[in-house]
Amino acid sequence: RKPEDVVNFAAGPAKLPREVLLEAQVAALNWEGTGIGVMELSHRSKEFDRIQNECIGTLRRLIQIPDNYKVLLLQGGGTGEFAALPLNLTQSSDEVADYFVTGTWSQKSAKEAEKYIKVNYVLPKTSKYIEVPHESKWQLTPEASYVYYCDNETVHGVEFPSIPNVGEGKTLVCDMSSNFLTRPIDVSKYGVIFAGAQKNVGCSGVTIVIIREDLIGKTRKNCPIILDYTVQAGINSLYNTPCTWAVYILGQVLKWVEKQGGVTAMQANSATKSTMVFDVIASSNGFYYLPVAENSRSRVNVPFRVGSEENREKLEAEFLEEASSRGLLQLKGHRSVGGIRASLYNALMPNDVEKLTTFMKEFMEKKK
Ligand code: PLP
Questions:
Q1: 227, 259, 291: which is the final residue of a domain?
Q2: How far, in Å, is the centroid of ligand 1 from the Cα of 12?
Q3: Which residue in 101, 109, 227, 365 has the fewest CB atoms around it within 10 Å?
Q4: Domain span at residue 311?
Q5: pTM of the model
Q6: Shared-domain flag, residues 23 and 171
Q7: How far is the C-alpha of 357 from the C-alpha of 368, rounded, in Å?
Q8: Could you tell me how far CA 133 lies from the centroid of its own chain?
Q9: 160 and 285: one domain?
Q10: Ligand 1 site, residue 196, Cβ cutoff 6 A
Q11: CA atoms within 13 A on the CB side of 185
């Protein structure tokens, strides 16, 4: 198949802008006429230094990162940060941090943190993640070292509609892996923001960490050095060999976002794309079913079911097969929840999503 014949709805790694890939093809062989491919440059060269600094500079412009925040580009994925956070933000295993668990990823993060600190679960425990519960159900700890939440749960499609109001003076920590740069971010409200690049802003191999400077310098002595924010912040994230290719791609995607009109353009696109899918589901008389509460629905990962409980499995298998034969790819829901999931990250355009909604309507007409 040709790239122009398919739409990739993968949850990550995910579709990248075609312009970025075309430029990357050239850079892979010969970066800016140096005769050396970008992957072949030393991470200690002035050329790579420029790639890294331009990448960080573009990110700073895109979301107006205040001067008292550092941007780190690390390895280890979002999962690495699950451990890095307690190891860098607390001094001992007696400290408590508040965790909002609204789906798989915040749950994994809380479990990882339990190895190093006491975790207070802010929300009532549940196995069904279908909403961000109302403030009246939150149980915050006054002495918590930080308050953690996942802005967008990739598996369950639960997204915080806005920054949770956890009170003045708290260190707010946020996993934005799956909705990073899909809407403006008020960085000044956070202690730490982190995001793996492989969904909205690049390929796997680099994780962005934005951290307020006063939180740096408190790393525990037994923290693995590659997760050590103090060390990495002091050396522009070059303690060891980074994934140079991923940093290059991240920089190129950030420039692409800027050219598209920045995060407000991405926000408008996200609203258009998700509304297109929500509308088909809402007008399907229950043929399609989205389990997430309206005020917590993700604009970037839309999980839904097809048909009724009796014929669901068969219909969903047919849905996926027919979608695939039309070039609508990687729509299978996460193995832990089943069903269908359409991931609508930045590189996907409304006309791509239209192909899905057209198919959804036709499939429903045929099967209902
Ligand atoms: N956080 C969120 C919201 C995710 O969706 C994922 C992965 O999909 C992760 C964290 C873990 O990222 P990684 O696989 O890069 O460790």
A1: 259
A2: 9
A3: 365
A4: 261-367
A5: 0.98
A6: yes
A7: 16
A8: 21
A9: no
A10: yes
A11: 28
